[in-house]
Amino acid sequence: MNILSNLKPAPGSIKKGKRIGRGQGSGKGGTSTKGHKGAQARTGYSVKAGFEGGQMPMARRLPKFGFKNPFRVEYVALNLSLLQKISETHGVTHFDNEAFKTYGIASKTAKVKILAKGTLTSAITVVADGFSEKARHAIEAAGGTITKTSIPSSKA
């Protein structure tokens, strides 16, 4: 009968720990498996993160690579399907930074790029910082117009 008070671990699953520092007769006495002298034999010893025993550490052996472009322009990507949905539910036909902020799509200062995922059935006017080629064709094919805002160049 399996009652909680009768439960025991499986035979052989529990081992007694190594008892070091219990005299010479134990075979683990004397230096207590720490060897003779040196930092690791002392109390309070702890190895530093990444220390490899004097060997050149991995962080210094591996080559450094990669590049962060300081002039990168981040865009908030908006799909045509989202513009179509907002146009249907709220009756909006003019989209600009004000409209994007009003409907919680992007902040007023964010750079916005319109992408072509989804379909567009209503004629809308879109003012944004960037358009994909397919999105531009889709908006114009639905009878809408696009206006691209100029991005000030970071090089003076």
Characterise the protein shown here.
The protein is an alpha/beta fold and 156 residues long. 19% of the residues lie in helices and 13% in strands. The chain has helices spanning 58-61, 80-90, 97-102, 133-141, and strands spanning 76-79, 94-95, 112-115, 125-128, 130-131, 145-148. A 3-stranded parallel beta sheet has the order 1-3-5. The protein has a 3-stranded parallel beta sheet with strand order 2-4-6.
Write the layout of secondary structure elements.
Elements: H1 58-61, E1 76-79, H2 80-90, E2 94-95, H3 97-102, E3 112-115, E4 125-128, E5 130-131, H4 133-141, E6 145-148
Quantity of strands, as a count: 6
Give me the Rg, rounded: 34 Å
- The low-confidence runs, each spanning 5 or more residues with pLDDT under 50, are none
The CATH class of the domain at 76-148 is Alpha Beta
CATH architecture of the domain at 76-148: Ribosomal Protein L15, Chain: K, domain 2
Beta-strand content: 5-15%
Mean pLDDT value: 88
Element order, helices and strands?
Answer: HEHEHEEEHE
CATH domain topology of the domain at 76-148 = Ribosomal Protein L15, Chain: K, domain 2
Question: Biggest sheet: strands, sense, closure?
Answer: 3 strands, parallel
Task: Label the structural class.
Answer: alpha/beta
Distance between the termini: 84 Å
- Please count the helical segments: 4
Oligomerization = single chain
Shape descriptor: elongated
- Read across the widest sheet, the strand sequence of neighbours is 1-3-5
Range of helix content: 10-25%
